[in-house]
Design brief:
The chain is an alpha/beta fold. The protein contains 23 helices and 23 strands. The longest helix is centred in the last third of the chain and has 43 residues. The radius of gyration is 34 Å and the shape is globular. About 4% of the residues have low confidence.
């Protein structure tokens, strides 16, 4: 709060607050509003969101934190322009500008004799012109126009019609943009709001987000939020005990090729994902393993389509959870129980008495559900009345349920749209309600989380037969600021065995750092060998007795023919041997090339050609590394050309 006000007071009009999910964005905004209102009687506050549920949720938070009931400007909830409360929560869509009348409509209205038509929206202009053409009187039409101009939403000066105009820009407004990554000045639904309040130089704005990156790469800083008040990512929240750590598991889907999917704005299209994932075979391979992984965790499942969400919920509800007399637990189709449902552990048939969970396990919900119905579904899940909340297009942002301890992403996203993956997975990172409240050190909070019934959040992602390198994994959420090489190695570890994401990144970091240090030591050894060889050669040359015959330019041409060309030296390096500045003859070079091409080991080539120790194996080329990264094959920083070639050959032959 102090840094935000410092920025505003220094003249910065917009401040961005990047705070991880669960670290108090809404409460921070409420307290900032309170301080802003205390500063001057002409100060006002407005929170702008983009979704009905989030508007109501923010308004409730303001009431809970400040004991002040804010006004709501959204759809049918319309504030009296002469009685606007000091804090307003508004829907961005509600503040949209109506499409203005066209030039042709303006000319026709003028031809009919209508005056003062600048603010008449396109739709109303069309209705008025149609009525005039049908014989309605000019007096009636002018009354319609005057009635529009008398509306608080009309602005003749700007030639525009919007509910934003009812809010007096001469007052000092503080605007909070909830989920700031959703707002950019360039958007037609946002720019006019910012410009309207910017007419007062004493007004300010702030953006709240856990994921400041937009998939279209539009910067939030340039116009909207040029100042950064706080940058507090999830890694910091986990390390200091304000969020639970993630553990990662993958469901392998060998029939899915993410590289074959279409993309819009850098991400997979929902239609293509639905085509690949929403069929009986895929559902069995996705939902079956998920049921085996989650245990008793309250689970949120994201889906690419409404149809798939409904099918996932139906698939789960058609099953019961059984505990075999041998102690093994598994989910089986209810219809097969007692006749065909066998225990995977012991092979015995599961008896009907082995059921330990039946009934409704899952509910599906999507955007067309009424807000009231959604509220009931959410509340029942939060109360533990069913285990699996299956959604499409909902709960990505602002959905607060600290009981969620597993998030399954059946709607994978690309790395370019990684902020979407972070929003999905952020639904599960909150500690249990009240768990860390009042604990004044990170150690106490971490210990409380570790000993709670929610010590971590399980993330379940998909892995296709190809394309993992193009998908955002949980490691990418933790790995902000880390080298791609570290992230890729951690991802490779997690894909194979799953586990704690932070530990995988830490292990990958240590391994790569160790390899880099070893590479530096090897480089120093090679330098010392080269230096030693150069000294020996210089001493030997000093003792050689020889005669010089001056043959003018001929001696240079003979020497040029006997020494290896730069082309030969470079080709030898490509074949796997770095001469490191050692001079060899052209005939030697030809022999070395022939031997390397025939597959003779580099050490054998060095021995048979009497090459010194400071000739060493070439490191892998950029193209080789690029291929290995594309195929998600891990490698160390000291990878040699020959080793890389073998790894690539093995991969092409299906050997891993």
């Amino acid at each position: 709060m102090d840094e935000t006000f410092r920025l505003w007071d220094s003249g910065v009009t917009g401040a961005l607050l990047r705070m991880a999910t669960g670290t108090g964005k809404t409460i921070t905004a409420c307290l900032c509003c309170e301080r802003w209102l205390d500063r001057h009687p002409n100060n006002r506050c407005m929170v702008i969101s983009y979704e009905k549920q989030l508007v109501w949720q923010f308004a409730q938070e303001i009431k809970d934190v400040l004991n002040f009931k804010p006004g709501i400007e959204m759809a049918q909830e319309c504030l009296d322009p002469y009685d606007i409360p000091k804090i307003v929560v508004a829907s961005r869509q509600t503040l949209l500008r109506a499409t203005p009348s066209t030039k042709e409509q303006a000319v026709k209205m003028l031809e009919f004799g209508l005056l003062r038509t600048e603010a008449v929206p396109k739709r109303r202009a069309g209705q008025i012109l149609e009525s005039l053409s049908d014989g309605w009187t000019l007096d009636w039409a002018q009354e319609e126009v005057d009635e529009i101009n008398a509306d608080c939403r009309a602005n003749r000066e700007l030639g525009s019609f919007s509910r934003v105009f009812k809010f007096d820009h001469n007052l000092n407004w503080l605007l909070f943009f909830d989920e700031a990554h959703r707002h950019a000045h360039i958007l037609a639904s946002v720019g006019h709001i910012v410009d309207w309040f910017d007419q007062n130089p004493d007004s300010r704005r702030a953006g709240l987000t856990a994921t400041p990156k937009r998939s279209d790469n539009i910067s939030l800083k340039s116009k909207m939020f040029p100042g950064i008040a706080i940058d507090y990512p999830l890694t910091s929240a986990v390390a200091e005990g304000w969020a639970v750590p993630y553990t990662q598991q993958f469901i392998e889907s060998p029939t899915i090729n993410f590289h074959s999917l279409d993309r819009i704005a850098g991400d997979f299209t929902d239609e293509q994902l639905d085509l690949h994932l929403n069929n009986e075979s895929s559902l069995t391979k996705l939902v079956g393993p998920l049921l085996d992984l989650v245990g008793d965790r309250q689970t949120l499942i994201f889906n690419p389509s409404v149809d798939m969400a409904a099918n996932v919920a139906a698939y789960i509800n058609a099953r019961v959870r059984c505990t075999c007399p041998c102690g093994a637990t598994q989910w089986v189709p209810e219809l097969l129980l007692g006749d065909g449902a066998d225990c995977r552990a012991c092979g015995e048939q599961l008896p009907t008495g082995s059921v330990d969970r039946s009934g409704e396990h899952a509910r599906a919900v999507w955007g067309k559900f009424s807000p009231d119905k959604r509220k009931v579904i959410y509340e029942d899940h939060q109360a533990g009345r069913y285990q699996f909340l299956v959604v499409c297009g909902l709960c990505r942002e602002g959905y607060n349920d600290c009981s969620i301890s597993c998030v399954a992403v059946f709607r994978p996203v690309t790395k370019k749209a990684s902020s979407l993956a972070e929003q999905f997975k952020g639904r599960g990172c909150r500690p249990l309600k009240g768990l860390v409240d009042g604990l004044d050190t990170a150690e106490k909070r971490l210990e409380a989380i570790k000993n709670s019934s929610k010590p971590d959040c399980l993330i379940v992602d998909l892995v296709g037969i190809t394309g993992l390198a193009d998908c955002a994994t949980t490691a990418s959420i933790y790995a902000e600021g880390l080298d791609d090489e570290i992230v890729e190695r951690a991802e490779a570890k997690l894909v194979g065995h799953g586990g704690d994401v932070a530990q995988a990144l830490e292990k990958a970091t240590k391994e790569i750092e160790s390899e880099r240090q070893e590479a530096l030591r090897e480089k120093e050894r090679q330098r010392q060998v080269t230096e030693s060889f150069a000294k020996r050669r210089a001493m030997a040359d000093a003792r050689v007795k020889y005669n010089v015959r001056n043959r003018g330019h001929e001696s240079r041409s003979i020497r040029a023919r006997t020494e290896a060309t730069s082309k030969q030296v470079n080709y030898i390096r490509v074949l796997g041997l770095d001469l490191n500045g050692i001079l060899i003859t052209s005939s030697q070079a030809s022999r070395v090339i022939s031997q390397l091409k025939s597959g003779i080991d580099v050490s054998e080539v060095k021995y048979t050609n009497h090459l010194p120790d400071d000739c060493f194996e070439s490191l892998a080329s950029a193209n080789q590394k690029k291929y290995l990264k594309w195929k998600n094959i891990p490698y160390g920083s000291g990878l040699t050309f020959t080793s890389a070639s073998k790894m690539i050959d093995d991969d092409k032959q299906g050997v891993r």
